[in-house]
Amino acid sequence: MYLHGTSKINSSGHLEIGGCDTVDLKQTYGTPLYIMDEALIRQRCREYMDAFRASGLPFQVAYASKAFCVKAMCRLVDDEGLSLDVVSEGELYTALQAGFPADRIHFHGNNKTPEELEMAISAQIGCFVVDNFIEMQMLQALAEEKNVSVNILLRVTPGVEAHTHEYISTGQTDSKFGFDIGNGSAFEAVKQASGSRNLKLLGLHSHIGSQIFEVDGFQLAVSRVAEFSLEVKRELNVTFKVINLGGGFGIRYTEGDTPLAVAEYVKAITDAVKKFFAEDYPQLPEIWVEPGRSIVGDAGTTLYTVGTSKDIPGVRKYVAVDGGMTDNPRPALYESKYEAMLANRGLDRAEETVSIAGKCCESGDMLIWDLELPKVNSGDLLAVSCTGAYNYSMASNYNRIRRPAVVFVQNGHSDLVVRRESFEDITACDLVPERIAKQPSFK
Ligand SMILES: *Cc1c(COP(=O)(O)O)cnc(C)c1O
User: Fold this and answer.
1) Which residue, 362, 387, 402, 437, could crosslink 391 as a Cys pair with Cβ 3.0–4.6 Å?
2) pLDDT tens-digit profile of 178-218?
3) At what angle do helices 38-55 and 262-278 cross, to 10 degrees?
4) Where on this chain does pyridoxal 5'-phosphate bind (predicted)?
């Protein structure tokens, strides 16, 4: 397993993260456990901020909170001076509860409800990324009713397809997101928005996909957006102050993944902006980006305890852990690949090839196929790396499995930032009609 950030094997042969021995973390918090390397999260935030400062362009880096949205994470992101993207009232509520400054919150989504728009207007968030005409009309009407002006970006699809898994591509024309540049719908949206009394059109937004390893997709998106911006200036005399290029910067999950350094993505984007907006544009726009995965992905490690195993001679050996698709649905959803090691036996040589299964009643509940490990015993600790993004945030209670705890580790300290769910949490929303009620048979 590749050791990210502060991860290392200590003198006892145990995996250590943020100066905390994972065997001790299991003793304190139990498993499964999400362990987040706080120093690495902060480092990634700073890499983005520093790269943009070096570009000389005005900018905002907005952390896409959907990757991992809990109050402590919002605090870290605020502490590092980033902005924050939310896509639902739940994420907005979390950010506001964490005291995140509303003027640095941006609201995304292809189907924001009237209630969500109201809540965000009342909270006076910094910007709405408007996705479609119905939303634009709804937002205009609500803002008028409240007699306020709201900042908006228009989400456009520039017709760029990122080289990535089909399910996580959104920049192409055939997408549920945004106004298409190619078919004139984006032009019409600019016309409507710039004529709306209560909407202040700041600019455009484009997000071309996720887990992207090259810069050409971003450069192409900038060129399309710039070309469109020039057309809009020519035909409508409307200029944009902000261009948001979304997220999607790739990370290293396994050996085959070859991400660029954060600074290289940022330089490619800012250079492209300088190049394509240079001619005929009154002022270089402010650049916003929205990294999610690349801020938290490699900072997360999930710690499991090994339970049963099943050896099918000549076929394969299944080793089951005390979690699975409930805490990490990505292998089942996207065939995502992960690396892992025995956290309590970091110095032992690999001796067998096993496949890691979860504990859910579902054959698809597999975390890793064909993993080289030392001879695994019941009670060993398995650490799966790179689980910081889209794991806790996508976790479910399938099979009524309780969601794990999350700890931040740094400088030898661990702090619980999400407690493990209790049995009470599991039934907290259940109601039983009086006519079939009975006393609990277990307390
Ligand atoms: C998901 C998403 C992001 C973040 O993507 P990552 O791959 O996690 O960086 C940013 N912007 C938008 C609009 C998104 O939908």
Assistant:
1) 387
2) 999 999 999 999 999 999 999 999 999 999 999 999 999 99
3) 30
4) 248, 290-293, 390
